[in-house]
Write a structure and sequence with these properties.
The complex is a heterodimer of chains A (380) and B (84). Chain A has 380 residues and is α+β, with helices and mostly antiparallel strands. Chain A has two domains: 182 residues, no CATH class; 155 residues, no CATH class. Chain A is 53% helix and 18% strand. In chain A, strand 4 and strand 5 form a beta hairpin. In chain A, helix 2 packs across helix 12. Chain B is mainly α and 84 residues long. Chain B contains two helices and no strands. Chain B is elongated and about 70 Å long. The chains are: A alpha+beta (380), B mainly alpha (84). At the A-B interface, helix 1, helix 2, strand 4, strand 5 and helix 4 of A face helix 1 and helix 2 of B.
């Protein structure tokens, strides 16, 4: 009965000051939503990159001259294959094609469509792809961002590439990648390797770089030494370097976000700092603190749930417009990524603690201070 | 008054249930499979970052450079997000 009276009084109090509580709840919800949205996006990207890193080759060999990457001769493929312990040696031909009128660029990949693995993957990934029809002439498959770009610039089903010699090479668009793969394929164009070489005016006997695996990790150092003994103008990129690059999402600048969040929450807490004098009307200190604790806890909990719901819908249902640009950039083709839902409950718990405890403390400390003062003084 | 709070509680329950259902029934396997298949075609795992032409488009493989001023390091905005 006592609890029921307490609950009724608590609800009455919340109802009585609903406009004040609503104001606080709206601001709190927005703070939690912003923080949760940033963390949801970063977790989703981290999950996607972890997936991509599984497909990452152990080593990539590039050729360097005067500090710049230059093309690798095809003969290097055989030389690398002959090193003991090396497997899956893959030639790669790719590069960025610059569209000067709009200062935008596409990432062009040359694919050996006669390679069994590539052709099977293409048949699966691009719906209704008839590989025979696709290979009957020189065509390309484009990412969703490229497709939109071409439509906006009145290229209906084709694009005129200009090679360094000034020749125009008209390439029809055969199909496009699924929007679900936008996180890796948005600015991507794949086409036959020979066609790509003619667009970049590359020598037929050259490659952009060579990727390979060394299944036995104990052999890695040995293979690296052998490679450096073979050629002196090489740069070897290891899987670890790439992993570090993508895993360090907000690694050293994460502190900046945390600092901004703390400044925001502290400012807000100062605003909600308030005084009560219920002890003057006959309440015990315990009752006053209990009532304020539950009142504040309800507001904190509702604001937290609101914030998380808003962030979830914003990131995973509406694909985080604007905020996703922070992670994916906005200087080239616009990228509408469908984020894969990843929710780390441990992290949500931490956000709740970072948000809830200072909030409750900001209300309870002044209330306690007032509650322990003499009623006469409190009423002055 | 109590009725109003009960309606609010029901709304929150419904919203949280919908989110949980969305999270549980999201087709993760199909999403992952499509990404892995795309990767198996190009053999180059990279995020499709919308960076300027002079910034490092493929992180780890290319270095930012300015063709007009090769000695001047251009600002790579993505380095504020991804570590090196």
């Amino acid at each position: 009965m006592a609890n029921s009276t307490f609950l009724r009084f608590l609800l009455l109090l919340l109802y009585q000051y609903r406009s004040k509580h609503a104001g606080i709840a709206v601001i709190s919800s927005l703070i939690v939503a912003l923080l949760s949205a940033v963390l949801f996006i970063s977790q989703s990207i981290q999950a996607e990159t972890a997936l991509q890193l599984k497909a990452q080759p152990d080593f990539v060999v590039q050729r360097i001259r005067a500090g710049k990457r230059i093309d690798v001769p095809v003969e290097w493929l055989e030389e690398i294959q002959e090193i003991n312990g090396v497997s899956s040696v893959t030639p790669r031909v790719y590069g960025e094609y610059y569209f000067s009128p709009r200062e935008e660029h596409f990432l062009l990949f040359g694919v050996d469509f006669f390679d069994e693995q590539s052709s099977k993957a293409i048949e699966k990934i691009v719906q209704e792809t008839d590989l025979r029809k696709f290979l009957s002439k020189e065509q390309m498959i484009v990412g969703d961002g490229v497709k939109k770009f071409l439509q906006e610039h009145y290229y209906k089903g084709f694009y005129n590439f200009k090679n360094p010699d000034g020749e125009i090479i008209k390439v029809p668009v055969y199909s496009s990648f699924d929007k679900e793969t936008n996180i890796i394929s948005n600015d991507m164009i794949i086409m036959p390797m020979e066609l790509l070489r003619s667009i970049f005016a590359m020598d037929e006997e050259t490659l952009t770089d060579i990727a390979f695996n060394v299944p036995n990790e104990a052999e890695w150092d040995n293979v690296l030494t052998k490679l450096h003994l073979l050629h002196y103008d090489i740069r070897v990129i290891t899987k670890e370097e790439i992993t570090k690059s993508y895993h360090n999402l907000f690694n050293y600048k994460g502190g900046l976000f945390l600092a901004l969040y703390l400044i925001t929450i502290m400012t807000f807490i100062l605003i909600i700092y308030q005084r009560y004098a219920m002890v003057a009307v006959g309440w015990s200190i315990k009752d006053v603190l209990k009532l304020k604790f539950f009142e504040t806890s309800i507001i904190v909990l509702l604001s937290f749930i609101n914030g998380v719901i808003i962030a979830y819908c914003y990131v995973y249902l509406f694909d985080a417009p604007l905020l996703s640009n922070l992670f994916l950039g906005s200087e080239n083709l616009s990228n509408e990524v469908a984020f894969m839902p990843v929710v780390d409950f441990g992290l949500l718990g931490s956000i709740f603690l970072f948000f809830g405890i200072p909030f409750i403390a900001a209300v309870l400390i002044p209330v306690w201070k007032i509650a322990v003062t003499e009623p006469k003084e409190a009423m002055k | 008054m109590i009725k109003g709070f009960l309606v609010l509680a029901l709304l929150y329950t419904a919203a949280l249930t919908s989110i949980t259902a969305h999270m549980l029934f999201f087709k993760r396997d199909s999403h992952r499979e499509k990404i892995m298949q795309t990767l198996s075609i190009v053999n180059l795992p990279t995020l499709s970052l919308s960076t300027s032409y002079m910034a490092a488009g493929i992180r780890g493989y290319t270095k930012p450079s300015n063709p007009s001023y090769p000695d001047m390091m251009p600002i790579d905005t993505m380095s504020f997000v991804y570590g090196e």
